[in-house]
Write a structure and sequence with these properties.
This protein is an alpha/beta fold and 448 residues long. The chain has two domains: 113 residues, Urease, subunit C, domain 1, CATH 2.30.40.10; 297 residues, TIM Barrel (Alpha-Beta Barrel). It contains 14 helices and 18 strands. Strands 1, 2, 3, 4, 5, 15, 16, 17 and 18 form a nine-stranded mixed sheet that branches. It is globular, with a radius of gyration of 21 Å. Bound molecules: zinc ion. The site of zinc ion (ZN) has 6 residues, from loops. Zinc ion (ZN) binds next to loops.
Length: 448
């Protein structure tokens, strides 16, 4: 299926990529799912009449955002009453909210949880999601439901199911990961379609026993994928690992054969120097989730130190939001506050989201993401933004953090297809989906 060509003109193009270029009065031609040509609007006069045109006057034309750690299944937690008395620490948060929640999710709950997050993400300009799913009550076949939801909206996604032995269902989770990854690999081979890809998910090492870990490593190697796994989110993960296995979490995963450039280690709040060294030497990416870490009061990941050791650190939201705007702003101020040093993390917060998330996504998708250039996937957003001060390559990060993140995303395009225009999803009745979601959530809350 080939989409027809689409010209976006008269906007300010922000290319991002290694050398971010800002093109005033810029235009960009999409053919199929690819960016065909990019430049000044004046260079596209001859094709204007023969193609569909979007006028981007007073708008920025940017790559869509990439969220490298998300939990679609968290939706029905919004407004829920967790088990009482209130959780006092991270493990209790899992035991009183997330584990009981994911244990009773059914297929319909998961379908609506996913679709509303994807819709909200598209509205915030997120075009690629790395989702980590958990539903201990229903695992077999469940990844198809999430895939269906994501495809219904048209977002790009890497999907994974976090396996866990906390209820003795590790084997079932491994089976579902293998089934789903094999299906996606077959599909990719036949259609070359990469809108949905898959990774092998592990919940966290403190709930994955040795047998399951070894079986998962064997499976992920033969399937040619990496792990999407929570690492040292709370100090308890490290304490349990050292008590039970006599080594740190990262050392245990490394010894098992679970690290490498196609694995993403999420959080990494409590790493020692040896663990950072292992992550750097295996080129394993780390995903920082500042809002979630603050919300769970688990501590602050030493991202500056990791970046200093050349670890590729990306930015996720851990279910706090499908959009990236809040986490990038929080990253900037959290590390300043934590270091008591206002000089740090202004550039780094932008680097995590705009450079490193693209680098990470490019390990998993065949064509360029996170950059507007010829030959890249046409995952593009238009943002309503009138710059109140000069906007150029030097001033861009300031505009991004303190202006662009605050304004509306007007249009979202994924894989060459316009999914949202003037703030409205085009192919789906949002009100109907949200009404159904509320109904389903009410039913879910009664079961919780
Ligand atoms: Zn998470």
């Amino acid at each position: 299926m080939k989409n027809k060509s689409l010209l976006i003109k008269n906007g300010t193009i922000i290319t991002l990529g290694e050398t971010n270029q800002i093109i005033q009065d810029g235009a960009l031609l999409i053919e199929g799912n690819i960016i065909k040509k990019i430049g000044k609007s004046s260079g596209f006069k001859d094709i204007e009449k023969s193609t569909e045109v979007i006028d981007a006057k007073d708008k920025l034309i940017m790559p869509g955002f990439i969220n490298t750690h998300m939990h679609f299944y968290s939706t029905f937690a919004r407004g829920i009453m967790p088990k009482q008395p209130a959780a006092e620490n991270f493990v209790e948060i899992l035991e009183k909210l997330w584990w009981p929640l994911d244990e009773i999710l059914n297929e319909k709950d998961i379908y609506y949880s996913t679709i509303v997050q994807v819709i909200n993400g598209i509205k915030k300009g997120t075009t690629t999601f790395f989702d980590h799913h958990e539903s201990q009550g229903v695992q077999q076949g469940i990844m198809d439901v999430i895939e269906e939801s994501v495809r219904e909206i048209g977002a790009r996604a890497s999907l994974s199911l976090g396996i866990s032995d906390r209820y003795g269902k590790g084997k079932e989770g491994i089976k579902e990961n293998i089934r789903f990854i094999e299906k996606i690999n077959r599909h990719k081979k036949i259609t070359k379609d990469e809108i949905v890809t898959a990774m092998f998910g592990l919940h966290a090492l403190f709930t994955v026993n040795e047998a399951s870990l070894n079986e998962s490593v064997d499976a992920r190697k033969s399937l040619g994928v990496g792990f999407h796994v929570h690492i040292a989110e709370d100090l308890s993960d490290e304490i349990i690992s050292k008590d039970k296995y006599g080594k740190s979490v990262i050392k245990r995963l490394y010894d098992a054969g679970g690290l490498g450039e196609n694995t993403i280690a999420v959080h990494c709040v409590h790493l020692d120097d040896e663990e950072m060294y292992i992550l750097a030497s295996t080129n394993t990416a780390v995903i920082h989730n500042p809002q979630s870490n603050m919300n769970n009061a688990v501590g602050v990941a030493n991202v500056l130190k990791m970046l200093g050791k050349k670890i590729t650190v990306g930015l996720g939201t851990d279910g706090m939001s499908p959009g990236m705007q809040d986490d990038v702003r929080v990253a900037n101020i959290l590390h300043k506050h934590n270091c008591k040093d206002p000089r740090v993390f202004f550039c780094e917060s932008c680097q995590l989201l705009l450079e490193n998330n693209a680098k990470i996504a490019n390990r998993f998708f065949g064509k360029k993401l996170g950059e507007l250039k010829e030959g890249a996937y046409a995952d593009i957003i238009l943002v309503d933004y009138l710059a109140p001060t000069p906007l150029n390559e030097t001033t861009f990060f300031g505009h991004f953090l303190f202006g662009i993140c605050e304004v509306q995303v007007n249009t979202t395009i994924v894989n060459g297809k316009v999914l949202m225009k003037d703030g409205k999803l085009i192919h789906i009745d949002e009100e109907k989906v949200f009404a159904e979601s509320r109904k389903q959530a009410e039913d879910f809350w009664k079961r919780f």
